[in-house]
Structure formats: structure tokens, C-alpha cells
Amino acid sequence: MSLPLAARIARREMRGGLGGFTVFLLCLMLGVAAIAAVGTVRSAIQTAITDQGAVLLGGDAEMSFTYRYASEDERAFMEDRATRVAEIVDFRSMAVVGEGEGAERALTQIKGVDAAYPLTGKVVLDPPMPLAEVLGDKDGLPGAVLDPVLADRLGLGIGDRFRLGVKEFRVRARLMREPDGATAGFTFGPRTIVRSDALAGSGLLEPGSLFDTHYRLLLPEGTDLRAMKTEAEDAFNDTGMRWRDARRGAPGMQRFVDRMGSFLVLVGLAGLAVGGVGIGAAVTSYLDSRVETMAALKAMGAESRTIFAVYLIQVGVLAVIGIFAGLALGAALPVLAGPLIAARLPIPVEMVVAWKPLAEAGFYGALAAALFALWPLARTRDVQAAALFRDLGPGRRRWPGWRLGLILAGVAALLVAVATIASGVPSLALGTLGGVAAALLVLTIAAFGLSWLARRTGHHMRGRPALRLALSAIGGPKEEARAVVLSLGLGLSVLAAVGQIDANLRGAIAQDLPDVAPSYFFVDIQPDQIDGFRTRLEDDPAVTKIESAPMLRGVVTKINGRDARDVAGDHWVVRGDRGLTYAAAPPPDTKVVAGEWWPEDYSGPPQMSFALEEADEIGLKLGDRVTVNVLGREIEAEITSFREVDFGTGGIGFVMSLNPAALAGAPHSWISTVYADEAAEAVILRDLASAYPNITAIRVRDVVNRVADALAAIARATAIAAGVTLLTGVVVLIGAAAAGERARIYEAAVLKTLGATRGLVLKSFALRSALMGAAAGIVAVAFGAAAGWAVMVFVMEGTFRFEPVSAISIVTGGALATLLAGLVFALRPLAARPAQVLRARD
């Protein structure tokens, strides 16, 4: 084989035009552009998090504590090593406006800061002014900065008064951006910033109150953060101290961006798979139109390998054009939409062209083009010189041969390997790619099944000529049904899966939880307030149930004398501080499933009851010893019982419960859940908040709404990615309809010659398109439901309920899409004159 000769023939043939490759280019371009765009946005956010680690964190390093301020030794450690230290106290409370029955209340996340805050970055206020000036005393009242959402909810303007606990503050500015806001994570209420010393006398930071302290450090240039972290953890390993530094200034956000970005790239790969169907169909259609050229080359002595090389070069050139067009589009869109994207992010992000995600997208595009184009290209070797004189039909062999089959298997394996490694979440990557492969297999089987069923039933439709013609066309030797079902079906499958998952998540939060959840979750109830708190609620006929328990926070540091993380890995129980309680007897509705509860008057060595499910996940058994750090004090307790704990009820649930003597003397507060009629909620809140201003009330419905909003944002991003997949499917669908237009012109001419009316021909074309679209939609709904079930049960660990509305929309949309495409490309066949068409095919 002469490669230069093949290249010369390919170049000369390409001069005559490459009609029919529009779909090829669009499919490749859209798939690559989707992956490139997601990768560009992801890279920009990751770069911002890395470059602005100190700004996002609020310093070069941070030492945090729960329920307490730093001790003298801890402060001395920080001041000896840092050039500046800022102290922050963070907690939830109620902001109150007005008095008595007319008072308005709203939950807020309070940040108490000192004069050194912020160490890095800048707090953006409206009106613009220095933070120190805003928070200082004026006219006898300390100043405060409020999130605009909180200010609007309470109807507060600049200069208005409000209360935190029993102390009054004055609104001096609105908070537009805080530099360390991305590290706050999920909060139950909008932000309020005040001076820490102004909280004295508010009654909000009493012993046992729920609060965290964060100490931000500015360190000398060149400080080894890794070594300093090791030094701090060695010095204060038993105090419950938590360390973060600028190497990962916003780990929660980084983790979310990585997971979400990986998932969207994988959805983009699903779109590329849809485009691959179009690539294969476009290459097949183009090569079918070049059969006579191939036969002529064969008659003149060209080898099969040379002919294969000619068209491989052409497809390769077009693939490069499509990939570069997709990369240009994928890089340009995020840059052009940069201001809009940045405005929706909690950190300043600059959208710039990033070469790594572009290279990744281009590599995916090249592999997809090779995977779907090589198979039809293999058929060029089977074209015979006799094709110049007679139509050999579609009967050429479909299997590309063992050598090319191994190459295709290698390309597919490389694609899977790269996607799995690049995603950073192997299980997610393998699950998504496995789902795409399964969908393609199911859709292929469905396409063949549809053709088989059409052949079997077509001859029974004697009284329905239009339906009979449609079924005959679907069951015929052409591959239109397979192209339509594969392309549209895979796009609809992704959309159907997203719709089912989104509907189930919304249903679980917005419907299931409120039916069983309490009205309010009260925290920071002091021990001397709990009796009066209960008395007020027990006398109220609108209250159906009250649950209350003492609550402390502790960090699980050791299990059987070993570091807890070495035993439990990254399990959520050992990640950060956890709530724990004590009880002399098992609380009502508690089910002890193994071991025994301690006697009510027990005062021996500490004993612990552990949640059964979490114990099984960690690998704990009766007799194991768990060490918990509570306010700097290490408590080692023996597990003497396991109990069932259902955290899905919205009620009170603790992983760990100790005997009362184990926590004797430890400052703590109480929490309570209140189940009441919705009509009585406002009165209950007013009475309790008036009697106990320090108590924080969290309305469960508000939490539900915040979670639902977060899920809605995720669903929108996923739906956009799924929409690109569907758009690619529509392009393939249009390409399939366009490729079949020539055959339909001939078909319409024959039918008209045999006496069929234009209406009958149009009706048969419409039924054919609608049946194929409906079949694709039905298969997509079934596969989407299966994928939704798998995600809800195995990933979300929830229950699945089939959602019919989106399913009906998917089936209807599939039928309409194919119907419209079929009708658009039926106009020319209907207008064609039979004599002209049949003479041309003579």
C-alpha cells in the first residue's frame, strides 16, 4: 500500500465536496464542546481555590475548637508562630425586630469578629465603608452587618435596630461579600457580622451553648504548612483542635466541584456517545454514496488497504476539524459567559482558556471518532469491482474482522481507562460509562426488536394501508430504525434518568420529610430553662409530641487505642465533631438490639450505647472502646449496647449515648424537637423566644426549602449537560432523516405510481417517524427509571418511586421530535414527480 498515493486520492476526492458530513461535524463538535466547557469552568474554579487558598480560608492557617475558646497554651502556640491572629466565634441565633406579639424573628448565622478580621481579602459592604467603622459603637449601640436576604426578611434598613438575644444592635451596612464565605459550608440562615466583644451580655454564649471558634493565622513567608500542621496536631492532639491551611482553603467546595465536574464530564461523554451514533451513520451514508468510486478504484487495481486508507484519511481530517471546532466553542462559551458564571459563585473566578481540560476533551473526541468511524470504514475493503454494474445491496459483511475488532476493543478500553482515571471518582466513572454501554446495548436490541415486530405484524394490517406501509418501512433492510432509536433513545435516556432522580430527591425532601418531621428544632436550651420550656409546650393542645435531650459535642479520636481514622477511614462519624448525649435509662421508643443498657444509678467506668448501622459500617462490636474528646477532655468508654437510630425522621438521634456519670460536670445545653399543628407554630415561637431569648429555633420547613434550593441548582446544571446530549441526539435524528430523504423520494414515486395519494404517503411517513420516536421514548423511560432506581438506592441510599409526569413527557417528546424531523424531510419526496424519479433510477 502506498500511503502518499492514498493521501493524494483522498485530497482530490475531498475537492469535490463532502456533502453529508454536516452531521458528523456537528455531533463531534457538540460532544467535544460540552466536555471542554465543563472542564474549563471546573479548572477555573479549582485554580481560584488553589491560588486564593489563604483568602478563602481567611489566613494562612486556621485552628478551630468546638464549644470553647482557645486555651492559654493554644493561644501562646499561635502567637509565637504567627505574625497576626484573628479570632472568630460562629453560631446560630435568632434576629428579632419589634416587641411582643408584633415581633418578627428570623434565624441567622452569626459571626463574631475581632479587630484583626479580616486578615486577608476584603469584606464588601453596601454602602462601602471600613468594617471596623461599621461594627463600632455609635449612639450607644454596637453596629452590625446583615445579609441582604435577612435584612429584607425582617424589613430592616440602614440605621434600624434589632436584637440578638437580649442585646440591641443597629444595622450599619449590608453584606455583599465576605472573603471567607466559601468556607462556611451549608448554613441554616443568612449571615450577621458583629464584634465578638459586643456579644457580651446577650445571653447567647452561655456554658453549653453551641458555638465554634476559629483562629486565623498569618504566618511568616516560607513557613512549612505541612510541618506546622504536624507540630500543632502533636501538641494538641487530645484537645479536639481541628486544623486547616491554605493548601486546601475550601475543602468542602473543592470536593463538591471535583465531584460535580467529574459527573458533568461523564454526562458529556454520554453526549459524545450519542454523537458517535451520528458519526457512524454519517460515515456509513457517505461511504455508501462512494461505492461506485471504490469499485472503479478496485477495477483499476487499487488494493483494499489503499481504499481503506483513502477514506480513513478523509474521516481523520474531518475529525480533526470537528474536534478543533468543538474545542474552540467549548473554550469560548465559558469565557464569554464568565461574568455571569462568576456572579453565581461564592468566590471570585476568572474564566480563562485552560489547556489541560481542552486536551482531555480533544482526546475523548478523537477516541470517540475512532471508535464509531472505524467499523463502517472497514466495509470499504469488501467493495467489489462488480458494483460498477449492479447494486450489491446492503448485504456486505458487518463484522470488521479480527484485527480491526481488536483495535476497536483497545480504543474502547483506553476511553474507559482515561475517563476513570481523569474523573478522580472511579466508581462514578465506571457506573456512568457502564450505564451508557448498557443503554446502547438495550437500545440496539430494542431497534432490532422493533424491526422484527414490524415485519411480523405489517402484513396483518390489510385494512390500514398507511400503517402497513410504515411498518414495512421500519421492518425493511435499511438501518433508519436503528439510527433513530439509538441516537434519540440515548439522549432521552440521560434526560429521563436526570428527571427521575430529581423528582425522587424533591419528593423525599419536600413531601416525605415534612409529613413526619417536627415543626421546630430548638437548640441552646440551658439546663435551668428546660423545665419551663417543657411546661409551656405540654399544656398546649396544638402540640402533639415533644422530644428533648441533653447535648454535647465531641470528637471521636481513638477506637481501641488506635487513631479513629485508621480504623474507620473517612466515615462521617469520625470526620469532625459529633453530637452526643447521656441518659440514665433508654429514652422512649429506643430499641436496644444488642447488649444491655447500664443501670440507672450506674457510676462506674464510662459506658456507651452506639448506633447499630454506623457501628456495622465502622466494624465495631460489643466490648470495643471508643475515645471521645469533649471540651478538651478525653473520655474512653466501653460499648455495652447497640441501638437502632433512624436519622431520616427529622427527630432527635445520636450516634453515641453515654451514662450520665461519664459526663458529670461538663457544661452542656439541651435540644428539643416540637411536633405541632402548623397554625400554632407562630404562637409557639413567639412565646418561647420571648421567654428565653437565648434559645435558637430552627424551622424544619425552612431547612427543607434551603436543601431543595441547593438540589435545584444541581439539577439545573445536570439538566443543561443532559440537554446537550439530547441536542446531539436531535442532530443525529435530523441527519438520519436527511440521509433517508433520497430513499423516500424513490419510495414516494413508486407508491404514487401504484395509485397512492399524497395524503396516504404523508400519513405513512408520519406514522413511521412517530412509531420510531415512541419506541425510543419508551426504552428511554425504562432505562431512565432503572438508572434512577440504581442511583437512589445504591448511591443516595434512599427509596425510589417512579415519576410518571416526566416519563410521559419523554415518550411524547421522542414521538414529536421524530415526527417533526420526518415531516420536514417528507416535503421533497411528496413534491417529486414519479416519472422524473423513476427515469433517473432506470
UniProtKB/TrEMBL annotation:
Q: Does the keyword Lipoprotein apply?
A: no
Residue ranges crossing the lipid bilayer per the database entry: 263-287, 308-341, 361-378, 399-422, 428-454, 770-795, 807-831
Q: How does it sit in the membrane?
A: Multi-pass membrane protein
Q: Where in the cell is it found?
A: Cell membrane
List each copy of the ABC3 transporter permease C-terminal domain by range. 267-381, 720-829
Keywords, A to Z?
Cell membrane, Membrane, Transmembrane, Transmembrane helix
Show the InterPro entries listed in the entry. ABC3_permease_C (IPR003838), MacB_PCD (IPR025857), Membrane_comp_ABC_pdt (IPR038766)
What range(s) does the MacB-like periplasmic core domain occupy?
Answer: 24-191
Entry coiled-coil feature ranges: none
User: Major location, coarse class?
Assistant: membrane
From the Swiss-Prot or TrEMBL record, give the protein name: ABC transporter permease
Organism expressing this protein natively? Albidovulum litorale
Q: What is the lineage of its organism?
A: Bacteria, Pseudomonadati, Pseudomonadota, Alphaproteobacteria, Rhodobacterales
